[in-house]
Known about the structure:
Layout lengths: L1 H11 L42 H21 L3 H4 L2 H10 L4 H4 L7 H22 L1
Amino acid sequence: KEAKNRRDRREEAPAPPRERPGPAPAGPPDAAGPEQAGYVKSVSYAKDPETPLSRGDEALMTKLKELRKNLAREASVPAYIVFSDASLKDMCLKKPHSLSGFETINGVGKVKLEKYGEAFTALIRDHVSGQQ
C-alpha cells in the first residue's frame, strides 16, 4: 500500500519544467576577440590536406611510413597508433633534428617523444644530410 501511495504522489506532482539553454548572449560589437587580446592561433600545416609536399618531402614521408610500420609491427599495434599521417606530414614539413624540435610535432607527447623520438629524428637527420 505504501508503494502505491508513493506512485500516486509521483503521478500527481508534475515534473518541474526544464530550462533549455538558449543562445549565448551576444557581447558588444566592439568586444576584442582572442586575436586582438594578444593570442595567436596555432597553425598546423600538417592537418591541412592542401599543403603539398615537395618531391624530397614525399621521399621522406615514404621513409617515415616505413619506420612507423616497422615500429608498429614490433609493438603489435596498428601503424596509426605509433603516429598518424598528419604527424608524419608535420615531421616532413618541420624536419626536426633534435628531441626538442620533435616535441613541436603534432601528436607528439612525452610518451611518444621518449619512445620514438630518437628513431624518427635520426631518420630525418640522415635524410636531410643525404640531400645536401
